[in-house]
Design a protein that fits this description.
2 copies of one chain form a homodimer.
Chain A: E1 4-12, E2 15-22, E3 25-32, E4 41-45, H1 55-68, E5 71-75, H2 87-102, H3 107-132, E6 144-148, H4 151-161, E7 166-172, H5 176-183, E8 190-195, H6 203-212, E9 218-223, H7 233-246
Parallel strand pairs in A: 4-5, 4-6, 6-7, 7-8, 8-9
Antiparallel strand pairs in A: 1-2, 2-3, 3-5
Helix pairs in contact in A: 1-7, 3-4, 5-6
């Protein structure tokens, strides 16, 4: 088992950013600047073609850190960010761009490539969580959430299905072909985002994946707009979801 | 045109409650206790079988008044609350209870009875808004929202479709048979609630009504659970929706 090794640290506007590695996998851990007190952790998964410090990741982390006082960790997926691309990665990316240029469906390529990346990434995510829980400010007994849309869902659904330490998750915007079967093993509360006019994922496909989760408490947020137009206010909603589920003491009368 | 006449006033925990009538129609207006400053108005419609001061109405009003500083008004629907029931009302209610007792579908009765009530109520809602806008603390140029679930949607959809003063609306939990055609004339931002395991309204019916709205900005919130289990946190979400749409100045950087 690999321990977590910090490689850089900076801080801005109330948030500390620490780069780390667990084995070969580079990650980033964002934490409140105000203290080293123990707090819940949210693991996030980035989208396809971007990386652990993409503005969407840093922006979501800032909401969780500054509004809730949580720790937030993201690692680069295989073939993404600071990690090398294999010949297979190059081939699948070329196939995706070719389909896009030809106006052909991207779904079949994304589904199979993301499923391949998930097989590589899921063991890394388990190891990453092991290593993060060795930090005294996280610990082994605190609540842990998972938040990943698009490719973050393709990796996150099999990860959460096999990871009892995750107690609440936000997913969205992926196809049911591979993931529905894994989603049927997930029982923790979820919030799920889909776009009503998604040009890649049909309504039926998006609804089928939401329907597959075995969670007794699950919420679907659908917004008008295409694949890239997920409204910014859904990030606020996800933050409130994690505040509800990872900090029971935040309920008004407690 | 009937003017608004106040008939009673009380106040508790930062909220003033004023009973009023507009013609024959009794209503209630909740306002911030802290001041008589002009503020946006949210009209609400209550559910079938209950009334203007049902705890769901008072609870939603409290959120809007104390968190946003808005005015909130509700009137009793025809045949509800302090208003007399006609022989037709009694007949339809008996038909509904008979269907329920026999385990037969309630939808066809609710759809036709609510459509009947909407025909009576919509002119009253327009007149009610006219009268409310004569109050100096509301005025004719302020933003106005509408919030009604169940029967509040059956009355609210035709009302909002014909009422250009409403600039944002929250609807949910009704059938598309009568309402979809009216929803196609609604273009203001909407938030729409449906229950994934509703024993009365099928998923296809609920999604068809959401789909019908012509609004460029529309959000659907689906939650696991049956007809009566709409989660309490959807009221918080609706309040944030009205805060976003009725008070542009509330946006963070303004």
């Amino acid at each position: 088992m690999h321990s977590l090794r910090f490689t850089a640290q900076s801080s801005s506007n109330g948030m500390v950013e620490r780069d780390f590695t667990v084995g070969e996998v580079p990650g980033v851990l964002w934490s409140p600047a105000s203290g080293a007190g123990r707090a819940p952790l949210v693991l996030m998964g980035h989208g396809g073609g971007n990386h652990k410090k993409h503005p969407a990741m840093a922006g979501r982390a800032r909401l969780l850190v500054t509004r809730c006082g949580f720790h937030v960790a993201v690692v680069d997926a295989p073939g993404h960010g600071d990690r090398p691309r294999t010949a297979h990665d190059e081939q699948e990316i070329a196939a995706l761009f070719a389909a896009r240029a030809a106006g052909e469906p991207e779904g079949p390529i994304v589904v199979r490539y993301n499923a391949h990346l998930a097989q590589l990434a899921v063991p890394e995510y388990h190891a990453n969580l092991d290593a993060l829980q060795e930090l005294p400010e996280i610990g082994t007994d605190g609540p842990v959430g998972y938040w990943g849309i698009n490719m973050g869902t393709a990796i996150g659904v099999p990860f959460v299905a096999a990871e009892p330490r995750i107690t609440a998750a936000v997913f969205g915007q992926h196809w049911p072909h591979v993931l529905a079967e894994q989603a049927r093993r997930i029982t923790v509360p979820i919030e799920f985002d889909l776009q009503w006019d998604d040009e890649h994922i049909s309504r039926e496909e998006g609804l089928a994946l939401f329907d597959a989760f075995a969670s007794k408490e699950k919420s679907l947020h659908v917004n008008a707009g295409n694949h890239k137009e997920l409204p910014r206010f859904e990030a606020d909603s996800a933050v409130r979801f994690f505040a509800r589920h990872l900090v029971p003491a935040l309920t008004p009368t407690a």
